[in-house]
Design goal:
heterodimer, A: mainly beta, five-stranded mixed β-sheet, B: mainly beta, four-stranded antiparallel β-sheet
Chain lengths: ~110, ~110
Amino acid sequence: LAKTTQPISMDSYEGQEVNITCSHNNIATNDYITWYQQFPSQGPRFIIQGYKTKVTNEVASLFIPADRKSSTLSLPRVSLSDTAVYYCLVGTGGFKTIFGAGTRLFVKA
Amino acid sequence: NAGVMQNPRHLVRRRGQEARLRCSPMKGHSHVYWYRQLPEEGLKFMVYLQKENIIDESGMPKERFSAEFPKEGPSILRIQQVVRGDSAAYFCASSPGQGVYEQYFGPGTRLTVT
C-alpha cells in the first residue's frame, strides 16, 4: 500500500484558489489517487479520483504529473464552507483503504 | 436513492456492556467497510465485508470486536465488554464493487463508554 504525505494544515481566504499537494513516492502501477473531504461530525465525502494527467469535476481539479509520485488537489475560489479535512488516498480501492491524518484547511473571511 | 444509513447515531454504554452498531449500505452496494476515528485523528480501517463474507479484518482488534454482513439485513459491528478506549466515532462505508469505486460513507455512530 502506497503511503501518502500531506501538509498537516493550510490557511486560505475566501475567494482564493487552494492547492493541496500529496506525495506518494511508492505508488504502484495499478493505483488510483482519490481525495475525500470530511467536515466535523460527518463521514468523509468523495471529491475526485484520477490516474494520470488532469481530472476536473464541478467541485475540484486533480493534477497528476507524469511520474505520478505526487498529486495536487485544486479547489477554485474557496468559501468558508470549504473548511474541512482533506484526505489523499492511493490504492486500487476496496480492501484496506488507508486514510492518513489529512490536511486541515481553514478558510478565513 | 438513500445514502448509507447508520444507527444509532449516538450510543452510550457502560464499561462491560455490549455495543451493536448497524450499517445499511446504499442500494445496490454489496461491499461494506468499517472505520474507527478518534478525535482529531484520521480514520482507521477495521474490516471489509461482502455479503456473508469477511474479506479483510486486519484492522480489527483480535478480541471483543466482530463484524458481519448477512445475506439479508444490515451489517453489524459488535463490540463486547466495551472499555473506555472504545469511545470513538465508527463510520461505515459502502461501494458497488471491489476496485477503484469510491466509497460512500454514512454519518457515523458516536460511541461513548462511561
